[in-house]
């Protein structure tokens, strides 16, 4: 155990920790964007609200969520440490044009990109996660046809009424239909993304995420010595098209969808 802590405290160990936490967060992005695609479903927010209930009540997911929060903190602290160390190692700025051959803009500005993303994550958690867990939020009741899953009726329950009734998420059968009661996070998302400034902030942040992943995903495999010649093209392709283009584009499309529809 002592040797492990000594390794993680070393420069190589911190780079490994950065790579491993970065890859874990990359996997989480796939799960997160997949679940959030429910926002595009035209069902009054039922699918998305049910997704949020599952993500906040299913025990294994709750455990993983705590691991996720710890990973974000470790990744951020480690990133700031490595950036500060690199800057300290080059305290003198040489005059003239720098030689940036072999490096990309993203690789030279990972500290700035990471800071943008940390601000975004904090804002995002306060706006939605904290509001869902601790804020006073409206609830919604859905009447769903059991055989087709079509929403027959939906009704908003105000936060005050929900608190007075001590509501809990529930699914019940009633006369051949399903009655689903859950918090209406969809309504919070819908309201937030009607503000052009909020949408602009999210889109710019997703641009930062794109550049951060463009370098970070491939760099993680390089650090772990897993970027061999046989896999280099595959890793570069996944890092570029999946993580740097598709995932940020999908996340950015969500606020744009609510703003423009």
How many beta strands in the DSSP annotation?
4
Q: Mean pLDDT score, rounded?
A: 90
C-alpha termini separation: 55 Å
Number of helices: 10
Query: Biggest sheet, open or closed, and with what strands and sense?
Result: 4 strands, antiparallel
Counting helices, strands and paired strands, the structural category is alpha+beta
Order of helices and strands: HHHHHHEEHEEHHH
SS strand fraction? 5-15%
Which word captures the global form? elongated
Helix content: 55-70%
Q: Which residues sit in consecutive blocks of at least 5 with pLDDT less than 50?
A: none
Alpha carbon gyration radius: 22 Å
For the biggest β-sheet, the strand order reads 2-1-4-3
Please provide a written account of the structure.
With 261 residues, this protein is of the alpha+beta class. The chain has a domain at 193-253 and 256-260. The chain is built from 10 helices and 4 strands; from the N terminus they run ααααααββαββααα. The protein has helices at residues 2-9, 11-36, 46-57, 59-89, 105-108, 110-134, 159-165, 185-192, 196-223, 229-260; strands spanning 139-145, 151-157, 170-174, 177-183. Strands 2-1-4-3 form a 4-stranded antiparallel beta sheet. β1 and β2 form a beta hairpin. α2 packs across α9. The protein is elongated. The N and C termini lie far apart (55 Å). The model has no long low-confidence stretch (mean pLDDT 90).
């Amino acid at each position: 155990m002592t040797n492990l802590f000594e390794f993680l405290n070393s420069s190589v160990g911190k780079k490994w920790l950065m790579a491993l936490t970065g890859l874990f967060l990359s996997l989480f992005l796939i799960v997160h964007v997949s679940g959030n695609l429910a926002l595009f479903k035209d069902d009054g927010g039922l699918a998305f609200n049910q997704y949020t209930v599952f993500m906040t009540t299913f025990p294994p997911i709750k455990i993983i969520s705590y691991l996720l929060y710890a990973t974000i903190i470790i990744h951020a602290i480690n990133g700031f440490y490595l950036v500060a160390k690199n800057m300290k190692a080059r305290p003198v700025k040489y005059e003239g044009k720098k030689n940036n051959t072999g490096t990309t803009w993203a690789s030279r500005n990972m500290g700035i990109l990471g800071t943008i993303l940390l601000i975004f994550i904090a804002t995002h958690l306060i706006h939605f996660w904290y509001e869902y867990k601790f804020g006073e939020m409206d609830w919604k009741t859905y009447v769903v046809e059991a055989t087709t899953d079509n929403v027959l009726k939906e009704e908003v329950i105000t936060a005050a009424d929900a608190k007075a009734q001590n509501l809990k998420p529930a699914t019940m059968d009633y006369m051949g239909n399903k009655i689903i009661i859950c918090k209406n996070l969809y309504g919070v998302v819908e309201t937030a993304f009607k503000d052009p400034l909020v949408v602009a902030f999210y889109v710019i942040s997703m641009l930062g995420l794109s550049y951060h992943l463009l370098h970070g995903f491939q760099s993680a495999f390089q650090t772990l010595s897993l970027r061999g010649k046989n896999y280099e093209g595959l890793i570069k392709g996944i890092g570029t098209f999946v993580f740097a283009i598709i995932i940020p584009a999908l996340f950015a499309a969500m606020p744009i969808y609510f703003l423009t529809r």
